[in-house]
Amino acid sequence: MDEKNLSLEKLAKHDFNLVKSWHRKELSNISKWWKHMNVSSSLPFVRDRLVECYFWIVGVYFEPCYSLARIFMTKVMILTSIIDDFYDVYGTLEELQLFADALERWDITEINQLPEYMKVCYREVLNVYNEMEELMRHELGAPTSNNRRSSSYHIQYAKEGSVHSVEVTFGPTGSYGAN
Asked: Does the record's keyword annotation contain Transmembrane (predicted)?
């Protein structure tokens, strides 16, 4: 009986170390992205919630096969947190309306209408979703009309969710907190 328990304990330790290494790699990937955005100097009022957002997502997508989903959703959560800080701490009503309008149009040319501090976040929102769309196309195999439409549909749905989260905060008519 003790030998069985010892084997089980070794297996559990090996599994723990394996999962820990996956989490380290994913957090390293997300940390590089965060540092590349240069948030600490370009958006000093923003809370650094990288690890917190990651572990929220680990609670949802805990299986190893969902690594891409964890990375993507963590980035989305971090960007949502940054947008929340715009609304709660830093943005004026006019700036927030510009941001909400730009996000609803989902076009990089809208970046020119935004204040400097919002450009970093807006650009990254678009980049993260574009990156995920490309990864989904790659994961689905060679581009065909079926999988291109499928990946675009999934990403489009996620984009609409992001726009909706801003609308819930700001309201589609620009009345802050009305919804």
From this structure: no
